[in-house]
Amino acid sequence: MSIVEKAIQSAQESEIAFSKFIKPNDTGATGGHQAGFHLHKSSWPLFFDAEGEKGTNKDHFATIKWQDDFETTSRFIYYGRGTRNEYRLTRFGKNFPYLTDDNVGDLLIISKKSIDYYEAFVLSSDDDIEDFFAALNISSTETNGIIPKQSEQTAEDNLITCFLKYIKTLTVDFPPTLEIASSSRKCYINAYDVTINQIKSNPDREILKWLEAEYDLFKTLENDRYAELIKNPFPSVEDLVVSANTILNRRKSRAGKSLEHHLEEIFRISELIFQTQVVTENNKKPDFLFPNIEAYHDSTFDEKKLVLLASKTTCKDRWRQILNEADRIRTKHLFTLQQGISKNQLEEMKKYNVQLVVPKAYLSSFPQEYRSDILILEHFLNFVRGTQK
């Protein structure tokens, strides 16, 4: 069994589990407090019976088995004295391998097996991280906290009502990913009465809300479609495996196109001129080209007004794929939901003229000294708008 399979099994079989992207603040790269994993305040049920109280510190020691390989006696601690108000996981012993700068951007999973015993896993590759998200049916926006149980409904009642009405209109089991993205977005916008001006003024917030809404719709659709299937025993292990693989592959396929669909809508609302999946050199198809392929192939068109944007939910491994997608465009932009990337990788991206674009809420997950080189979505839109004047 692979590490990601063990991590999935551990999280699914635990009474409570937690996930987060490892950030510079965890490794001590920011120069703040001592190294140790920072845990979101909402995660206190993972290790305490009650929430920490300001003005006091409290801790809990437990054995943690890492990667199904070695154990540490570590300390969950709440710092509430003075100006501090945070939870951390510390004390891993000498030569602990998962608190280096190269681990920034990796996914940490902690599963509670008993009050004094936990299992923890660190996933590094994009494929492993996406496999974990698909198996647990969560998105990258749902990290840095307790992993919701499959039976939990996290969306507001009015949003769920819209989802259920939509599902009743379907004549197929699972519609195309574009339709799921569009329908979930419409439900969210109607349920929360979001205006066009709100989307234009805060695209960074809205795209994350759209992604969350789509995941909620997809969960609701899955629960509806597989309700009868999971009630009855499978006739053989092979049938079980085939069904499970079908479910997981559909999840991964949808997630892979989801971000692209929502970005496309943001660009439309922002009234930008762009094209998707057009062919450049060597039959390459960049996700987004601004303004269009005619301008790209026009040798007299100012190259400074050509913009390429690739979209990848995670990019620790895959960012290099975009380097030869458009030879005329020196700087390649890459929108990602990756939270945190090591300094070494950021330096390499800079060397190859790749500029990251991330939601504003994720900017703080990157090392302080590199944030000025990273665009938030709002600033990217303004940049493209400036090239189209």
TrEMBL record:
Keywords carried by this UniProt record: Endonuclease, Hydrolase, Nuclease
Domain Restriction endonuclease type II EcoRII N-terminal: 13-135
Domain Restriction endonuclease type II EcoRII C-terminal stretches: 218-381
Lineage top rank: taxon: Bacteria
Pfam families linked: EcoRII-C (PF09019), EcoRII-N (PF09217)
Alphabetized InterPro entries for the sequence: DNA-bd_pseudobarrel_sf, EcoRII_C_sf, Rest_endonuc_II_EcoRII_N, Restrct_endonuc-II-like, Restrct_endonuc_II_EcoRII_C
UniProt GO MF annotations: endonuclease activity
Name of the featured protein: Type II restriction endonuclease
